[in-house]
Each structure stands twice: as C-alpha cells, then as structure tokens.
Amino acid sequence: MRRGFAVSIGLGLSVVWSAPAVAQDDVPELVVTAAPWASPLDELAMPVTVVGRDRIVESGASTLGALLADAPGMAQSSFAGGASRPIIRGLDNARVQILENGLGGNGVSTVSEDHAVPIDPFSATKVEVIRGPATLRYGSQAIGGVVDVINSRIPSSVPAGGLKGEVTAGYGTADKGRQAAGLVEAAAGPIVWHLDAFDRKTEDYRIPGDPSRQAMTWSNAKGVAGGASVFFDQGYAGASISHYGSRYGIPVPDDLLDPTLIDMTQTKMQAAAEFDDLGSLFETLRLTGGYSNYHHDEVGAQSGDVGSQFDDRLWEGRAELLHGEPGSITGAFGIHAVRHHLNAGGEGGELLAPTDRTMLAMFLFEEMPLARALRLQLGARAERVVVNGGALDEATLAVDRVERSFVPLSGSAGLVWTPGGDWVVGATAQLSQRAPEAAELFSKGPHEATGTFEIGDPMLGKETAFSTELSLRREGKRSSFEAAVYQTRFRDYILKALTGESCDDTYDSCTNVPGGTGDELDQLRFSARGATFRGVEIGGRRALAEAGEGIIGVDGQFDFVRATLDEGGNVPRIPPMRIGAGIYYEADLLAARLGFLHAFNQKRLGPGETETAGYTRVNAELRYRPSRSLTGGTAVELALIGDNLLNDDVRNHVSFKKDGMMLPGRSIRFVALARF
Fold first, then answer.
1. CA-CA distance, 668 to 60, in Å (whole number)?
2. What is the pLDDT of residue 129?
C-alpha cells in the first residue's frame, strides 16, 4: 500500500519544473518529503514542484527565491542580490516554511526581506516545493507552502561502486558571477562518508539604462559540510555538520554615503535515523533532529560600523511512525518539537527585543481506497505554541514582557481519482491555523535596511485559512498537462502593510503621534483582516515531431492569483498575472530551448503601493552532453544559458524596493558539470 500514498495537504498540480522541458534527464524519481512514504513523482496527487540538480547548477541562482521565481505559482521577494525568499501563490515570509532535509533553522529571514535564508541553492541535490497549505505535516508556518532543500549530507543510500562525486563551475556575464562546487561520497564497509563545498562570488549586476549597474547587489557566499551514515540490516543512522558564510550588499540604501551590507554566518548540525520492518503493523520509524546557530551583522560598507545584530538559535526534533495495513488503511503519525531563541542587538534591538518560541505538535495521516480508482485521504495536526517577547505599549512607550500561547488546529479531507490514461483528478478541502510569529507580535521600531518603522500587535490571534482546490493532471513521456484552480479564505489574515505615515528612529517621532514629524522611514504595521486568495495555474508540454535523433516540441505556462481584503481593497505585494511559452529540441547529445515569460502590469494595488509595469523576458538554453557514464547518466555536460535577452526593464511588484531596484538585464551563463 505504499505505492501512491500522498498526504492530503493539497491535491492537485504536480510539476517537474526544469525550464520547463529541456532538463528532463535530471528529474528525480522519488519525492521523499512530500509524503511520509517516498512515491514516484507521477503518482503524487498533491501540488509538487521538483527542481533537479542540473537546473540548480545552470541557473546560477544565489538564493532560493531566484531559483524558483519562474515556476508556475511562484515568485521571489528580490530584496537584494544575496537575499530573496520564495513566494508561493502570493503568500510569503512566515507562511512559507523553508526546510533543509525536512528540518528548519533558517535564521531570521522571516523577520525582514533583507535577511537571507542561510541555505545556498548550490548545496542542494534537488529542491522540492509543495504548493498550497501544508500545515498537517510541517507545522503552522507552512500555511502557504513548503520549500524543502534536499542534500545527501546524511547519506541515505550506498553509492554504486562505493564512490561517487561531482564537480561544477560556472560564469555569468550580468553580475560577473563565478561559482564552483564539488562533492564526494565514499563507502567504507557499513559507513558512507560525505563531503561537499562551494564558493560563489558576484558583483553588482547589469541593468538596462543609466546607471548600467544596480548598486550594492554584489554577494559572496561559501560553505562546507561533512557527514556520515552507518547502515545496518533494518535501516541506517547518520549525522552531518555544515558551516555557511555570506556577505552581500543591500541596494538603494537610505544613506548613500554609507550603504549597508550584511555579514552572516551559520553552523548547523543534523541527525537522522530510520528503522524498517518493525513488525506486522508498524513498518518504519523515522527520527530526525537538528540544531542551528546563526549570526549576522548589518554593517556600514564605508564606515565599518555595526548597526544591527541578530543571533538565532533553533533546536528541532521529529519522530514519525509509519504503520501498515489494518484492513486496507495505511498512514503515519508523529510528534514534532521546536525551541527557538532570537536575540537582536544594536539598532536591531530597537526593532525586536529578545524573543522565545516553543512548539509541540502531533500529526496524523491516513489513506484508504473507496473504489478501484478512488482514494480518500485524511489528515490532522494539533500544536501548542508559546511565544514571549517585549511588546511596545503605544500609550506609555514602555516595553513590557508579554507571553502568548496558541493552540493551532488543522485538518483536511481529499479525494484522488485516477480514471485511466495517466490522468489524475484531485479535490481537497482543508482548514489550517497558524500562530503569529514574534516579529508580527513584537516589532516596535526602525529597520534601516528596509527603510521602514515596523509596529507589531501583541494581541494578534491565530490566523485561520479554509482552502479548497480542484486539479487535473496527466504525465507522459511525450506530453504532460497540469491545471489547478484554488481558493483560500482567511479569517484574521495577518497583514503587513504600509500605513502612509512616516517616522524617524523612535515611535514618538511618527506622524500619527501628537507632535511627531518624522520623515526618514515609512511606517509599517501588522494587523488582522479577513482576506481571500483565488488563483489558477496551468502548465504543459507536447512533443510535435521527430527531428533526426531528437524530438521537437512546445511548452507553456500560465498563472494568476487575486487577493482581496474582505473590508475592500487588495492585499499588497501580490505577483502579477504571467504567461509563457517556448519551443524545445531534445536528444541524447544535444538539447535546446527558446522561450519567453511575460508578466502583465500590476494595477491591483494594496495600501501604500504604486503600479508596476509589465515586462517580457526572452530566454534561451543550449546543453551539450558529449559523454555519458556506463549507467547512462550524464558524465560531462556543458550548458549555455541566456536570460532576458531583449534586455527588458524588469521590476518585481512584490519587492519593497521595486521603485529603486531593477532586476538583472541581459545575461549569458556558461556552466560545466562532471560526475563520476
């Protein structure tokens, strides 16, 4: 009964996004984080995107947001060259859970858009994205979706022949970006060892017009990691340790004479164990745990003065027990615990006093067949979340220690119908709840890097979302099609919006306070509103004809999300409608694609927003595979990738800095990849 198991956290569109047709060779066979049991991608009923290793390397993306920005239903915050979080179906920050091998530990990236996620895409073997609300397995922070960065730092299998490795290098013209990486895994008896490292450097990238470069978009990042697993008859156990460092500029700073850069480091440890064949009822016990220690300084690029400091420590553990078949039912249940401490100093301490967050959860998934081609999927999750921190009393300007506790509850029910001909039809309904984050509750001061004065609301309650989705999908070797229509209605949607007021560095300077005349920072306030998100995603590809030893085909995509407030008006920073298409050629030796992605004008504006013009990006790819390994996998590959070839002006509507920051202009990348 393992085959076809899929969690009912969202049934619908399954996509392998790899530009989108050329890189089909690197599509992983299994999606290991989207369900308790690994399942072939074409049997998953939930909305999943998988970006394979080849595509990660070729993109040259320095952030997860940039890597995923063109996938259907996704966008990026694009605040800085080294800082950009993914946005899923218009939902961002605390609603999108970013994981590494199923565990968190991503610093303070949800506190502000200028804070990078301390995971470089270059370290990943693949990235899996689950669209839609996913609270049932991953927690209340995943109400919008999950991005899981998968790597083999804790080996879960023995390499064929006892040894495997990879080296890669690349160069991009727009940012003069240089990147190099390598990994090796080797077996010694029952132990498999892993080592990987990467280094990346970019300069300020080129943009159309004058000036020809976007200032302070440079970034430098490097990382090294090692791990090992010991294998035994009924499973394996292993651990890893990694160190990540990054320095990057913050564009369009408020002080042009002393712009800001961020200097970040993180050390992370993870452990995992799996025990199989436990008995007739319980099949597998899976244990994972991790600890991360994160620090960053916000530094004046000229003066060297440290303005803000952030320290973040996180402990996390998960235990999951997969059961067999009492009757015809399969499923899994487990517990999940998190302890999180955040400390801000300097100017950062004015924004957010030290905060603590603890979470303990239980979750359950079950699946049962109703007929030969019809399955019912049920899920539930209950959490207890406690958050404490310093809250601003706007009447007295005192900062008082406040503790809030929440019990988010979530549940879902879904149907999956497989009528034949490789078609999958899905329908789901789900209730999801999220506890507010510390920044939403306790923000109380200036954030110079974003140019905002942020005010939280310590009395915010749980955010509740009711989601429904219908989908249709078909996967085939010569053609594929996917379409989904969804709606999410929020009660007490926690809105992060500009108020139209301005401040200096203290609350009594704000223009909505008697006597306040501040004008340096835009005031931003968190509040709870009713809101509704509706959207459509369509994608597909079709082989048209054989050409020599290859195939010529076409592909296309379309996505649209509309988000409104129940009281009237629009939710701010919602991605525009997009449409794209391309023509491709695929053969064993050579693959190529030429296509475009057009974003329409965004005229549906939220509070404090301005209209953003549309754009068209024309892209091209050429991949040459001169040699292949004995097992048929690519041993050597050369790629040439062109992005925004018409050098169009591209501004990202969802970015707080869109008016002063343009995305890269024309870029040509060359990548070489070798595996052994």
1. 11
2. 87
Strand segments (E) across 394-520: 399-406, 409-420, 423-434, 444-447, 452-455, 463-475, 479-503
Q: CA-CA distance, 521 to 504, in Å (whole number)? A: 6
In angstroms, what is the C-alpha Rg of the chain?
Answer: 24
Neighbouring residues of 516: CB distance < 8 A, sequence distance ≥ 6: 503, 508, 509, 510
Its pTM stands at: 0.89
- How far from 149 is each of 152, 161, 364, CA to CA, in Å? 10, 26, 23
Rounded Cα–Cα distance for residues 56 and 18 (Å): 9
- Check: CB of residue 586 under 8 Å from CB of residue 553: yes
Distance CA 447, CA 348 (A): 7
Domains in the chain (CATH in brackets) are 14-675 (2.40.170.20)
pLDDT tens per residue, range 93-125: 888 989 999 888 778 888 888 888 999 888 888
DSSP 385-415: EEEEEEEE-TTT--EEEEEEEE--EEEEEEE
CB contact burial 604-641 (16+ within 10 A = b; e otherwise) = bbbeebeebebbebbbbbbbebeebeeeeebbebebeb
DSSP letter at 140 equals G
* Tokens (6 digits) for 154: 């804790």
Please give the average per-residue pLDDT across 555-567, as a whole number.
Answer: 96
104 contacts: CB under 8 Å, gap ≥ 6: 97, 98, 290, 292, 314, 316, 338
Angle at 208 between CA 207 and CA 210, to 5 degrees: 95
Q: Which residue has the tokens 């927690």?
A: 139
Average pLDDT over residues 77-86: 87
Return d(Cα 145, Cα 130) in angstroms, integer: 6
Residue 225 CB coordination number (10 Å): 20
d(C-alpha 669, C-alpha 4), whole Å: 39
From the number of C-beta atoms within 10 Å of its C-beta (0-12, 13-18, 19+), residue 372 rates as exposed
Q: In 10 A of CB 22, how many CB atoms?
A: 24
State whether the Cα torsion 54-57-61-65 is positive or negative. Answer: positive
What is residue 79's DSSP assignment? -
If phi > 0 it is left, if psi is from -120 to 50 it is alpha, else beta; for residue 132 that is: left
Residue in this structure with the two tokens 């943009």, named with its chain if needed:
207
Of 200 and 57, the one with more pLDDT: 200
For residue 161, give every residue at least 6 positions away whose Cβ sits within 8 Å of its Cβ, in sequence order, or none: none
Pairing relation of β-strands 452-455 and 521-547?
A: parallel
